[in-house]
Amino acid sequence: MPQLTLVQAINTALAQEMERDDRVLILGEDVGPNGGVFRVTEGLQDKFGKDRVVDTPLDESGIMGSAIGLAIGGMRPIPEIQFEGFLGPAYDQLVNHAARMRTRTRSAITVPMTVRVPVGGGIHAPELHSDSPEAIYTHSPGLKVVMPCTPYDAKGLLLSAIRDPDPVIFFEPKRVYRSYREEVPDEDYTIPIGEAKVVSEGDDITVVTWGAPVFQCLGALDNLPEDVSVELIDLRSIYPLDVDTIVESVKKTGRCVVVHEAPKTAGMGAEISALIQENCFLYLEAPVQRCAGFDTIMPYYKLELEYLPETPRIQNAIEECLAY
Amino acid sequence: MPKKTVYEAKIEYMQILNEEGKLDDKLAKDTLTDEQVVYLYEQMSIGRQYDEIAFKLQRSGRMGTYPQNKGQEANAVGAGLALEKGKDWLIPCYRENAALFMHGLPMHYVLLHWMGDERGNQIPEDCRMTPLSIPIGTHMLHAMGIAWANKLRGEDSVVTTFFGDGATSEGDFHAAMNFASVMQVPVIFYCQNNQWAISVPRESQMNSATVAQKAIAYDMPTIQIDGNDIFATYKATKDAAKRAREGGGPSFIEAVTYRLGDHTTADDARRYRDQAEVDAWKARDPLIRTRIYMEKKGLWSDKHQTELEDRAKRIVDEVAKTAFEIEAPAAADFFDHMFATLPDALARQRDTMRTSSLGLDPDQIGLAARTQRA
Fold this sequence. Notes:
The complex is a heterodimer.
Chain A (H helix, E strand, L loop, with lengths): L2 E2 L1 H15 L3 E5 L15 H5 L4 E3 L4 H13 L3 E5 L10 H8 L2 H4 L9 E6 L14 H5 L5 E3 L4 H13 L4 E6 L8 E2 L13 E4 L4 E5 L3 H11 L6 E5 L2 E3 L3 H11 L2 E8 L4 H13 L8 E5 L10 H4 L3 H13 L1
Parallel strand pairs in A: 2-3, 2-4, 5-7, 6-7, 10-11, 10-13, 13-14
Antiparallel strand pairs in A: 1-8, 6-12, 9-11
Chain B lengths: L12 E2 L10 H4 L5 H26 L13 H10 L6 E3 L5 H6 L5 H7 L25 H13 L6 E6 L6 H13 L3 E7 L2 E2 L2 E2 H4 L16 E5 L3 H16 L5 E6 L18 H8 L3 H11 L5 H24 L7 H4 L7 H8 L15 H7 L1
Parallel strand pairs in B: 1-7, 2-3, 3-4, 4-8, 7-8
Antiparallel strand pairs in B: 5-6
Helix pairs in contact in B: 2-3, 2-11, 2-12, 3-9, 5-12, 6-7
């Protein structure tokens, strides 16, 4: 079985699905001969031609809006937005049109498309290349939001996303793009959208996270005393959210820390805390802790590690929650 | 080195049937037959009656806000006839009712839409159109994308999108024009320049002499036409559709017309425009000139007119009755069409929507007690 990076796993999944389904096409900025700024679509235009891997004009709203039309017209478009910070110009098309089309037409017209977006900080990128806007789109009914962080999960979730009859935002943590390899089967497999993964089982405390911080959390777990037993949950899907896995774990441990890169206030941590409070009130031994980005503008990269929930801060949060 | 001209452009204006009902026979050749002229007149008249009834329904509190199409009907019917029903796509704004009806949309759907019922957007399977689009200028990209899909699939289908002069200020208008031009897709951009974007006149909307010239930047065939002339609206659309079918890519049509009514029933145009201007445009009403033309050709009489008015009333009354007799939508509808398969948490919200404990597990202590009391 080949050892693949996140970039390679996504590239493989795209190629396999384009081979399988000729309705699938990729459109975006620099996705053609250049293979995308992160090389995720490398080699795909050579393989599938210029009609199926399309370099568009430089206009995110144009990419999103025309992808909606392609989907209505019977194709399975995969628009790529180069960085999450550039979702802004496409926001209207995504949230006000793609997300609403099925409901407003009572399912007469639907928009099956997968929006691929590199996300998050930690790679010394310029301004507006490091944010984590997953909560914004989770708060927009009609969209599914996924953020796998391992090559295996990325392939399986991407295949599910492309085959999903509704619009899916597929966030790719760019910090993990090339930093981690694992075995990824050649064959076709899917991972259902909406299923979290228990990365490590434990009894003392639950840590819920997703995206690149999964690896920071693993680092924190390594630094904890050996007798501390942590249950680490990688959500993989932000919407729909796997509430059952979180609730089941917190009922067992009674303690929970939620870790995310996005700003704390009204981030997904707030929603997860509320869900735990609603579902596990009598099981809690400590208040749910949130270890998140701050309610500030994401700093330029000299200070980005101060902003992001890095291993020491996560470790502190876990220890504080355990000590309560 | 002397400067040289690297690009020159001009905009042509086309009018075939003028305000006095006089036809330019040369331009009219191979356009509308007498039967088609009568048919389009009937469609415009039914549309006008539809507006009247919709207006009354709103005023009597039985329907929400409604935007009248009054004065602009020649565009919807001319374009509607030039395009093939069930094959070509219509991506409308909200002043093209007659085109949608001609392409098979049940007439009560538009009333349902304005009565606040999404089932008015539930486009029947054999109709190739999207529902009315309320936000300005966002739907042109969808038209472009559908046309792109048509091209990729080798489908013989042209997409026409309608919008107003104000929409051409939106960024998405330019995105759609540019994408359509770069990808050379079979789409027609049909601008109903009705002179007003709610209260803002065309002159404040843009500093261009014409709307049509905006297409020149995208190297798109473009024309300005009299939008109150059914021969011109038909011919311009027919020409653009032919070009699109033959692989000639997108076209632009600026149809100069006028919104004779208020923007919507929630608007009062007397606040911002002169009655003299409205009166001048009333004389250019597409129904008036078409009727004069038909009468001169011996196609129409007062008797025909009376019969048509009666028929239009009967049709529209029946449509309104249909819209009102439809049973109220089920509350679960707005859940059930969120996704193809409803996520569990959303299904639970639907199932507990009447309770105060939205989406919670009813077996929880406290909640269970409360449920038992109830």
